[in-house]
Design goal:
By secondary structure, the chain is α/β, with parallel strands linked by helices. The chain folds into two domains: about 1-35, no CATH class; about 50-240, 2-Layer Sandwich (Nucleotidyltransferase, domain 5). It has nine helices and six strands, in the order ααβαββαβαβαααβα. Strands 1, 2, 3, 4, 5 and 6 form a six-stranded mixed beta sheet that branches. Helix 5 (about 135-145) links the parallel strand 4 and strand 5. The protein starts with a helix and ends in an 8-residue tail after the last helix. About 25% of the residues are buried.
């Protein structure tokens, strides 16, 4: 499946070059595959304004033998997955950070690497209850001390020892939930913005697919970077531009 996609890319590039009347050599699919190992894909350019970052993750399958080979020879390997972590700018809907990891790592451990991809200030960090960890609050505070962390506390969460004298952000979340309920907290905190990253994950799987074609970790990282860049370009082209007349 991976080779078929690269062969298609090779044929498309050749067709375009011929239509343009250019005398240029077209890299073969093997060359495209090797170059993906070290290709650097430009990151999204941010305006410089503080970003409201929304984070979530999903699983992507690893492509293996084709259906014909499985039917004829069977398969002895377990189906493998990789976990895709996405960071989305709430104001624009663009993917501004992405990372691919093995599926045995928890979501909270990847907050630091995602934040390191943001080259501007982060105004808020929003994620679901899987990120309700002290380490997540610490990673955000270490890089962006003024950022708000909007993560729903678990149902079994308890306040810290200093909740009465020096409450943390998590303590304030717990207090608001206790006073007004979880739905009111979601509205007051802006947690409902998290639907935007869920929409981006849905777009990724509907447009790009739910599997990775590449065979090595380096090429898989490049595959994800190209995919998110393509989704950002599609979003930019499809977003209307508003001009105030009066």
């Amino acid at each position: 499946m991976f080779r078929l996609a690269l062969r298609q890319a090779e044929g498309l590039i050749g067709s375009i070059i011929r239509l343009l009347g250019l005398d240029l050599a077209v890299p073969d699919h093997s060359t495209l595959s090797r170059r993906a190992e070290t290709l650097e894909v430009p990151r999204p350019r941010l305006s410089g304004a503080p970003v409201h970052l929304i984070v979530d993750s999903t699983g992507l399958k690893l492509c293996g033998a084709g259906e014909w080979l499985i039917e004829k020879h069977g398969t002895r390997t377990r189906r493998s997955w990789r976990k895709l972590h996405l960071g989305v700018d709430a104001d624009t809907g663009r993917v501004v950070a992405a990372e691919l990891t093995t599926n045995d790592l928890d979501d909270g451990s990847r907050v630091g690497p995602l934040l390191d991809q943001i080259d501007t200030a982060v105004a808020s960090f929003t994620a679901d209850g899987a990120y309700d960890q002290d380490g997540v609050y610490g990673e955000v505070a270490a890089r962006h001390p003024d950022a708000a962390v909007v993560v729903p506390p678990r149902s079994t969460a308890v306040s810290s020892a200093t909740a009465e004298t020096d409450p943390t952000q998590r303590d304030r979340h717990l207090q608001l939930i206790a006073e007004r309920g979880r739905m009111a907290w979601q509205k007051a905190s802006g947690y409902n913005w998290r639907a935007l990253v869920e929409a981006d994950i849905s777009r990724y799987k509907r447009v790009i697919g739910d599997a990775l074609r590449s065979r090595t970790e380096g090429r898989r990282a490049t595959e994800v970077a190209i995919a998110t860049a393509a989704l950002n370009r599609m979003l930019q082209l499809g977003r209307p531009a508003y001009v105030r007349l009066a």
